[in-house]
Amino acid sequence: MTIYNLGSINADLVYRVPHLPGPGGTLAARTLTRGLGGKGANMSVACARAAAHCRHIGAVGPDGQWAVQRLMEYGVDTRAIANAAEDTGHAIIAVDDSGENSIMIYPGANQALSEEEIALALEEAGPEDAFLFQNETNAQRAGAEMASAKGMRVAYAAAPFDAGAVRAVMPLLDLLFLNEVEAQQLAEATGTAPEALPVRDVIVTLGARGCRWYNTDTGAVQDFPAVPVQPVDTTGAGDTFTGYVMAGLDRGLPMAQAIGQATRAAAIMVTRPGAADVIPDLRDVQDFSG
Ligand code: ADP
Ligand code: NA
Predict the structure, then answer these.
(1) Per-residue pLDDT tens digits for 199-234
(2) Spelled out in words, what is the top-level CATH class assigned to the domain 2-9+38-89+107-283?
(3) Measured in angstroms, how far is the CA atom of residue 238 from the centroid of ligand 1?
(4) 67 C-alpha to center of ligand 1: Å?
């Protein structure tokens, strides 16, 4: 079975600076590290690290072959990554000595996906496959409609949050991932609590407090405490969590077990600086003694 992930691919350019640059200021950065990021890429790598077959649907620019190469090295099926004329998406991240950061994202190729390419990528997909997406690309609704029409399990990680974007796809969803703030924003925008949403499974992640799973079919609500760790960098924890849940379900695990594995993977991720490049694999998760 395949997880088709329609998602962003970014270069995370992390600059270490003595202080964050202000308006009109010029500043020399001490170091630059270039990592693979973007919620889409992070989730695809998490799916692959968790032993699922994941086909990433996305685009990079002429400067983005290194990102495709890295995704491939991490086990992601990259055949449905298009070459766009736009620059590869990137995040310019300044981090100061106190750990405070400021981030500027350029979506670039992530907003240049064509519906034809998505249709082509989904050509062989069927009801045993899953479709995952986030709010960092264009053509989300078109992709979700195609997947739903094929009977695929449709899952949405509603980040970065936009109430209109969630509303547009809500009727197509089988599974919705929200963090605590997103869940609150959605409740305010729709007047509906997670357990009353028209989506069979809703998972609200709560950072260091773990997560809560609502099964709206049965009305069951289940809490999963986080694994206590010393946090170093929470970047990508939510994306790792989502990818692991999707992969667990794909491998036939019941939801509670998939969430259990995802919780351990996300905890490891919190202890590692970086994004896609440091997502743990199943072996790391099994060996993890936290
Ligand atoms: P997001 O990064 O999308 O905002 P969360 O911060 O809710 O998502 O984190 C997602 C999951 O990662 C949580 O449900 C939890 O399992 C794990 N996690 C996040 N922060 C911590 C932490 N400080 N310690 C342990 N686990 C964490
Ligand atoms: Na995160």
Answers:
(1) 999 999 999 999 999 999 999 999 999 999 999 888
(2) alpha beta
(3) 6
(4) 25
What are the boundaries of each domain within the chain?
2-9+38-89+107-283
**How far apart, in whole angstroms, are the C-alpha atoms of residue 264 and residue 208?**
12
Residue 100's pLDDT is 86
219 is in an annotated binding site: no
Long-range contacts of 68-76, Cβ-Cβ distance < 8 Å, separation of 24 or more = 68/9, 70/36, 70/276, 70/277, 71/9, 71/36, 71/41, 71/44, 71/45, 71/276, 74/45, 74/48, 74/49, 74/276, 74/279, 75/45, 75/48, 75/49, 76/44, 76/45, 76/47, 76/48
For residue 181, the ligand closest to its alpha carbon is 1
**Whether the predicted interface score ipTM is above 0.90:** yes
pTM to 2 decimals?
0.96
**H or E element that contains 153:** strand 153-157
| Average per-residue pLDDT for the chain | 96
